[in-house]
């Protein structure tokens, strides 16, 4: 029987912030590579500190996915790498959508459930969408 449970074998090297605390948690290397060719420029998702929370009598810090990560590239220039196509056929989506075509060469678009944090226009595309911060935001809590 196979002893693996589907866990990936890739390695990650993360900056511990020892020389520059602003780099704490930054992905430095993935599976021996410093640069990946998924998008035209290096990109990463950032999380913003929201508040301190208690979990079973343990103080933790809650970080939420930054709204800048899914912002329209006309507002957040660093998201230009999520636009697809070239020249007149270049297409950039409104806030809340990331097009994965340039990354995986398949026509796939991702968003939060119910288009949470997306342009209100997207929420008119289907009935029954109810975006909710409590149900749909991405976050992590970590003990300092």
In the predicted model, the low-confidence regions spanning at least 5 consecutive residues are none
Proportion of strand residues: 15-25%
In whole angstroms, the N-to-C terminal distance is: 40 Å
Counting helices, strands and paired strands, the structural category is: mainly beta
Helix and strand element order: EEEEEHEHE
The average pLDDT score comes to 83
Tally of strands: 7
Count of separate structural domains:
2
Percentage of helical residues?
under 10%
Q: How do the strands line up in the largest sheet?
A: 3-4-7
Largest sheet: 3 strands, antiparallel
Count the DSSP helices.
2
The general outline is globular
Radius of gyration: 18 Å
Characterize the structure shown.
6% of the residues lie in helices and 22% in strands. It is mainly beta. It has 2 domains: 8-37, no CATH class; 38-142, no CATH class. Strands 3-4-7 form a 3-stranded antiparallel beta sheet, with no helix packed on it. A hairpin with a 2-residue loop joins strand 3 and strand 4. The longest helix has 4 residues, at 101-104. It is globular.
